[in-house]
Amino acid sequence: MAGATLEGLLFDESTNEAVRAAVPDIGIRFFELVTHLGDGAVLIAFGTLLYWFGGESNRRTRAIVIAVGLAGFAISVGMKGMFLRPRPELAGGYSGYSFPSAHALGAAAFYGTLASVGTVGTRRLRYVVASVVIALVAASRVVIGVHFVGDVIVGVAIGLALVALVVSVRTPDPEWIFVLAFGIALAGYLLGSREYTTMKIGATLGAAVAWPLVRSRPANPRGAAILVFALLCLPALAAVRLAFGVFPTLSVLEVPAYAIVTGTILATPVLATRLNDWPIVDRLQRWLPFSGRVVDSERMPPR
Questions:
Q1: Read out DSSP for 204-240?
Q2: Which residue of 163, 177, 237, 289 is most buried, as measured by CB atoms within 10 A?
Q3: What pTM does this model have?
């Protein structure tokens, strides 16, 4: 009886409707905005920028954040593809499956790791900020009606458990976390999950292969060199996306394509270092507020 009651509370439409009815319209609009802090694209962009433009001394630490993010992604889409649970009726035409919440799991894994291994501010402040962001993202998924309460509770729990596993190691190494992420992605596929198959396998495989190749290589790019290198890669990325859209039969090549993209992200600081002496890089470095590869707040234009 207790189990049935708990199931009814955590995975019932009426609970979602009650939560949404208790939130005023302005609150719903707020949650519709704050939910994007857990979007996969936002987390990828945030993690990539942190990795590229952080100091060389803690590149390994920033790679850990990316590694845990990839592992969290592999877990969430793997479970979605195995359980195939539909979203609440309030979700309307929102695509994908409901269990667990990828936003809640991703936010817990990403921001929890960032708070645990980061160096900005005090540890207590980082944990407080991360907790608030994770709670807001999780709550937003219920308020806007795209997940059940149970979806976000399980998502947050798994994300935090992943963080606890990583930080329990005295000196966590991104390499084994990338390998773990690939193992999770492959296991999900073997267990029948077909959610984002090429992306999860390709991205985790690319990271697992690329990191051992670049981790010990010198990487002291200027900030402008990273920007120029990224711009040079954009046409190739756009061409690949266009090719997959025009020629669906090329989908078999999506796994190596995602592997190359992820590997290039991790290799960018090393590869961009070779562009340091380019004239365009030198010119941009003088114009933009970079001190080496790090943005210098003192060189930012006044507001």
A1: HHHHHHHHHHHTTS-----HHHHHHHHHHHHHHHHHH
A2: 177
A3: 0.91
Q: What domain range includes position 187? A: 13-297
Residue 101 lies in a domain: yes
Q: Is 104:155 a contact under the CB 8 Å cutoff?
A: yes
The token duo for 295 is 């943005």
Q: Which residues pair with 291 in a beta bridge?
A: 294
CA 57, CA 53: separation in Å to the nearest integer? 12
Site of tokens 């270092």: 273
Q: State the Cα–Cα distance between residues 276 and 48, nearest whole angstrom.
A: 20
- 219-238 burial, b at 16+ Cβ within 10 Å, e below that, comes to bebbbbbbbbbbeeeeeeee
What are the tens digits of pLDDT across the range 232-274? 999 888 888 888 878 777 777 889 999 999 999 999 999 999 9
Give the chain's domain count.
1
Count of CA atoms in the C-beta half-sphere (13 A) of 225: 21
Q: Which two tokens stand for residue 260?
A: 């190359």
Q: Is residue 118 assigned to a domain? A: yes
Q: What is the total residue count of the chain? A: 303
Rounded Cα gap, residues 97 and 83, in angstroms: 8
Whole-Å CA distances, 291 to 45, 53, 118, 167, 284: 21, 10, 21, 31, 12
Per-position DSSP letters for 86-110, written without gaps between them? PPPGGGTT--S--SS-HHHHHHHHH
Q: Is 60 exceeded by the pLDDT of residue 61? A: yes
Find out whether 148 and 101 touch, Cβ atoms under 8 Å: no
Map tokens 């989908």 to a residue.
Answer: 251
Smallest Cα–Cα separation from 167: which of 205, 198, 132, 126? 126
Please give the Cα distance from 264 to 193 (Å, whole number): 27
